[in-house]
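WARN retry 2 of 3 for item q-0093 after timeout on previous attempt; input resubmitted unchanged.
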Amino acid sequence: MLLLDIRDLTLAFGTGPNAMPAVEGLSLSLSQGETLGLVGESGSGKSITALSIARLLPSPPARYLRGQIRLDGRDVLTATPRSLRELRGGVVSYVFQEPGSSLNPVLRIETQIRETLRQHRPQAADRPEVIRLLERVGIPAPERRCREYPHQLSGGMQQRVMIAMALASRPKLLVADEPTTALDVTIQAQILELLDDLSEEFGMSILLITHNLGLVAQLADRVAIMYAGQIVETGPVPEVLRSPLHPYTRLLLNSVPQLGKDRARLTAIPGSVPSLPNVPPGCRFHPRCPHAQPDCRQIEPVELPAASLNRTVRCPYALTFT
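OK item q-0093 returned
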């Protein structure tokens, strides 16, 4: 059963002829208990997509021009303010990449977690439940830590607190937006293992947003590759990583450092993701694509089934590349 179903979503900033689509024609789905990795460079539209799931983008300037977002069977784009409050936290919770900026610096950890509990599970808004949540996310001495302030915790412990707050409402979907970017490698591995355990324990779906395909290989069941506001390739993680179809996916994989590879410099993707006012015509990746054809500069590709029924690619020439 689909927990999240996004179809043909186009979201723009601005009004009238000056409106600039940040996400265009985006389709994405996530089943119950599944982990989906959303991968792309900075500026690809990953975080905007994540925030749109619970309509967290302020409107204006954000405008939903077309498409549909269904979360747990409910239409998000037509939901009333009361229904949105029920969805936010009750169905979907968020963990962001900078826990230090997400936590209130003047409130104790216990106060912040109990605030979430009072909103979604008032019957459990007490210290024993706060301690239980902190224990579950692996924080040592939770009785002492719950009385501390965010600045007294390390970055890894702050992120665990954010995960505990997200779990407090018992959501069906956890959106983890670059949850390990600011952490060192050892703590990254611990946080990923924790998310994997929690997903299995609670039957919780996870949308993992990252630019790191290595994290996706460890945690995700399926992956969606995003570029310039569009999904360019989707499929099961083993298939996509073993035999990528879209040139952008191939270049992303080639730029990942590999142990044992004797090369002086990392392979880099030339150029950068286009800004909203400068999205090129045709295929958005063609200025950076080593396989670009004349049609790529004029005709915008659509999603096509490829390799198997579980895969799609937004490139008609993908199967011909060597």
